[in-house]
Write a structure and sequence with these properties.
Blueprint: H1 3-13, H2 23-41, E1 50-54, E2 61-65, E3 78-82, H3 99-108, E4 114-118, H4 125-128, E5 147-148, H5 150-154, H6 164-174, E6 179-182, E7 186-191, H7 194-217, H8 226-237, H9 244-261
Parallel strand pairs: 5-6
Antiparallel strand pairs: 1-2, 1-4, 2-3, 4-7, 6-7
This protein binds manganese (II) ion (MN).
Manganese (II) ion (MN) binds next to loops.
């Protein structure tokens, strides 16, 4: 390994890089592991679903667990993949069949540094009805939340995005948005960091639940306006300890680790 080169690349690409070589990478892997545990603890993923992060050492690589339930992922499970969706070093460990969701989105979107794919339950009805998933508490739903119809891309399939062509079609449907629904299957959420993407995945599920409840009350619904959403996004984007994503991440992390230690549920 070209150690000097790797260290300078890390220093250049991450604000978190301290003086310790590899500090940014170690911090990212830590966030990725915690992200897996949080998504499980918050009921966004069950035994299925996955989260990845773009590799700070090489924009054409991304990091993701070997095929394993997210609630059990540790740092040793994290593998490096290329934009063809295949492991950089194939060590025989099983890999997720839907890894092409991640590879094709990283290929299409240079601004994306983390991807979550889940089957979070309250979102799925919006993928099989004509009711659009519109924003109440999720400003990142703008410009829109498109629905990926896998029949258009692959005819009759088992619904899994299990090759590059299906992944590319999904990435095309996602476009410049932050969330896309997969008809009868689940959703994909993207963001600039692992922490923001985890927050978005949790709030996508929460917004779906709120919308369902608002519809049960009946009558017209007042959605979040694009102007309000832009102001909320700007506010969340400010790095402020104790506010925004920082506050929720700290809480979700503590809860996930505490419950994991107690053999939760
Ligand atoms: Mn899936």
């Amino acid at each position: 390994m070209a150690k000097g080169k790797r260290t300078s690349a890390l220093r250049k690409t991450s604000a978190k890089a301290g003086t310790r070589p590899g500090a940014a990478l170690a911090a990212l892997i830590d966030d990725l592991v915690i992200g897996n545990r949080i998504l499980y603890d918050q009921n966004i993923v069950d035994g299925y679903g996955h989260i990845s992060a773009r590799d700070p050492r090489d924009q054409a690589h991304f990091l993701m667990s070997r095929a394993r339930a997210p609630g059990l992922v540790t740092g040793a499970d994290i593998m490096v993949f290329g934009l063809d969706g295949e492991p950089i070093k194939d060590d025989g460990r099983p890999v997720y069949s839907e890894r092409f969701i991640h590879s094709e989105i990283y290929k299409a979107r240079s601004d994306v540094h983390s991807v979550v794919h889940s089957h979070s339950p309250t979102v799925i009805p919006f993928s099989v009805t004509q009711v659009p998933l519109k924003p109440i508490r999720a400003p990142f739903f703008y410009p829109e939340v498109p629905v990926f119809e896998i029949r258009d891309a692959g005819g009759w399939t088992n619904l899994l995005v299990s090759d590059s062509a299906l992944g590319a079609a999904l990435a095309q449907t996602l476009g410049q948005n932050s969330v896309a629904l997969l008809r009868g299957h689940g959703n994909v959420v993207v963001g600039p960091t692992v922490r923001v993407t985890v927050y978005r995945a949790i709030y996508t599920e929460a917004n779906a639940r709120l919308l369902l409840e608002a519809k049960m009350l009946g009558g017209p619904i007042t959605y979040l306006a694009p102007e309000e959403a832009a102001l909320m996004e700007a506010n969340l984007a400010k790095p402020r300890p104790g506010h925004g994503h920082d506050r929720t991440w700290e809480m979700w992390k503590a809860e996930a680790l505490a419950r994991a230690g107690k053999g939760r549920r």
